[in-house]
Write a structure and sequence with these properties.
Helix 13 crosses helix 17 and helix 16 packs antiparallel against helix 17. This protein has three domains: 194 residues, Heat Shock Protein 90; 124 residues, Ribosomal Protein S5, domain 2, CATH 3.30.230.10; 215 residues, formyl-coa transferase, domain 3 (2-Layer Sandwich), CATH 3.30.1540. Strands 7-6-5-8-3-2-9-10 form an eight-stranded mixed sheet. It has a five-stranded mixed sheet with strand order 11-12-15-13-14. Strands 18-19-20-24 form a four-stranded antiparallel sheet. The protein contains 19 helices and 24 strands. It has 565 residues and is of the alpha+beta class.
Length: 565
């Protein structure tokens, strides 16, 4: 009996359209999703040239009969939905069909499949042309080879990224899906090299350990919270630990990897006040929701979803995380303020003195230095003080300046670091004892791709076998305690970056991680130095990441607001 059918036009037209096959990653995603939907417990992916030359995905799933194999190459053919109502309760990873029509249209495809290991089918196609259909010997499951992607679309082919960049996208996707299916074996080969091999395990924690190593798993707490028919489970940072980037924040809805601002917002809200300064929570969060409450038919690649009630999902995630955080023994919120000071006569009751921090408590030499600074006609703005430990308040000509201290310092350091790199004058520091770090497969690829750039900047990172690497040298501008986090951040930021952008990305990340932070109290002399250095750079309007550095409040606007004009 046929499992695969061709959808009627009125149903096919209600499926989110769009070109599914954009690059090798798109092919791997479609084929692996089909393997998992077919009940596979073993998925093997093999690549050549980052998937541009060859992609082969082999599984031990239910396979297809000859009739199903032939019709699977027809447009809108699928075994996953049959009626319009099915679109409202998608329970599989894919449903546009087996994606073979789109894949075979732009490549050379060889399909081998068998339902029971006795009657197997071979189909070879080149573009829209069928080359061969025959019977072969093949075990239960399916193997699909995709060769020479975009061989017939040279314009599309020339826009593909480098071999390592394409491979990095595939590795990142496969890691995500392997976390959602810990009971499935995943193997990835690139040429003759094994990129990773994750044997089947019994739970998510073991799979996280396989992927990220012991150092990550030791700082995680378990999440498990149920509200009616909805559930959130997974692992997240045990406060006050965390990391400096979002690379370890992965979210899933009904085991489908998704991207949604709701998850990030709920995560940030739950951890507000519980993390050390400048750290972000690590999180592998899984949501189980009724299929009728999730619409996955909103994006051609099915990477985004729409919720029937976003507020309910937000509340579910925030509540589940908060309960887990509070459950941890001895956890207290990290106060965003310093201990309260007694308000002075000119600070109104109820406002902490350190929130204003304007011309208070200065030593005599600081006051003298402040008074000696250039006035309105001077070269640099006159620093008045710090607000909320985040913004420097200064005056120049007939304007008040509100300067974001982190963005400003980031811009200053970016200019200095670019000059250092141009002159190849990075000072190096030897680690007293090699700093051991564990890297994920994606980070290993990033290290290999960017090794030359990192070595030029003073980093020496050597393999110790497996996931372990040793930082033996690092730039002298860094503290040894920060070197590990900064290497992790650099590898995350650099992965997949276009070649022409790599240096800027590298230096911008380094500047960001070494700049003063929002919430950091600064003595007056540091504020004066920072403002003077800022006004020496050629572009002081935005930081290297494009965020504004300062805002100006004109005297006329002040007078107008106070009705003096």
């Amino acid at each position: 009996m046929k499992k695969i059918i061709q959808l009627p036009t009125h149903i096919a037209q209600k499926i989110a359209a769009g070109e599914v096959i954009e690059r090798p990653f798109s092919v791997v995603k479609e084929l692996v999703e089909n393997s998992l939907d077919a009940g596979a417990s073993d998925v093997r992916a093999e690549l050549l040239n980052g998937g541009k030359k060859l992609i082969r995905v082999t599984d031990n799933g239910c396979g297809m009969s000859r009739d199903d194999a032939e019709i699977s190459f027809e447009r809108h053919s699928t075994s996953k939905i049959s009626t319009e109502e099915d679109l409202a309760r998608i329970a599989t990873l894919g449903f546009r069909g087996e994606a073979l029509p789109s894949i075979s249209a732009v490549s050379r495809v060889t399909l081998r499949t068998s339902c029971d290991g006795s009657k197997a089918t071979l189909i070879k196609r080149e573009g829209e042309k069928v080359l061969e259909i025959s019977s072969i010997a093949f075990p239960r499951g399916t193997s699909i080879e995709v060769q020479d992607l975009f061989y017939n679309l040279p314009a599309r082919k020339k826009f593909l990224r480098s071999e390592r960049s394409e491979l990095s996208l595939i590795v990142k996707y496969l890691i995500g899906v392997s976390l959602a299916y810990p009971g499935v074996r995943f193997l990835l080969l690139h040429g003759t090299r094994g990129v990773f091999h994750f044997p089947p395990v019994t739970n998510l924690k073991e799979r996280i350990y396989q992927v990220y190593g012991r150092s990550v798993i030791e700082n995680l707490m378990e999440i498990d919270f149920k509200d009616d028919s909805r559930r959130i489970y997974g692992f997240a940072s045990r406060p006050p630990s965390g990391r400096r980037d979002r690379s370890h924040q992965l979210f899933f809805v009904n085991r489908r990897p998704v991207k949604d601002k709701i998850f990030h917002a709920a995560l940030s809200q739950a951890y507000k006040g519980f993390l050390e300064k400048d750290l972000l929570a690590e999180a592998w969060i899984f949501c189980e929701l009724p299929y009728s409450e999730v619409d996955v038919n909103v994006h051609p690649a099915k990477a985004e979803v729409r919720f029937q009630d976003s507020q309910t999902v937000f509340h579910l995630i925030q509540t589940g995380l908060t309960k887990a955080i509070l459950r941890e023994a001895g956890i207290k919120k990290v106060s965003p303020f310093l201990p309260e000071e007694k308000p002075t006569s000119w600070v109104r009751e109820g406002v902490r003195a350190n929130e204003l921090n304007l011309q208070q408590g200065k030593m005599p030499w600081e006051q003298e230095l402040l008074e000696s600074l250039p006035g309105e006609e001077g070269l640099f703005p006159r620093v008045l003080g710090q607000y909320l430990n985040m913004y420097i308040v200064a005056a120049k000509d007939e304007e008040l300046l509100i300067i974001d201290q982190h963005n400003a310092h980031e811009r200053v350091l970016f200019e200095k670091y670019m000059e250092i790199h141009k002159n190849k004058r990075w000072p190096r520091k030897l680690a007293l004892i090699p700093i051991i770090i564990e890297l994920s497969p994606v980070q290993v690829l990033s290290l290999e791709e960017n090794k030359e750039l990192m070595e030029e900047a003073g980093f020496c990172v050597e393999s110790m076998g497996g996931k372990s690497f040793a930082i033996k040298e690092f730039p002298d501008i860094l503290k040894e305690a920060d070197a590990k986090d900064i290497v992790h951040s650099l590898l995350e930021e650099l992965k997949g970056s276009p070649l022409e952008e790599k240096l800027k990305t590298f230096v911008a990340t380094l500047a960001c991680k070494t700049a003063v932070k929002a919430g950091e109290p600064l003595p007056l002399v540091k504020m004066i130095y920072l403002v003077e250095e800022l006004f020496k750079v050629s572009n002081l309007s935005v930081c290297p990441h494009g965020r504004p550095v300062l805002i100006k409040i004109d005297k006329k606007d002040i007078e107008k607001g106070l009705k003096r004009s």
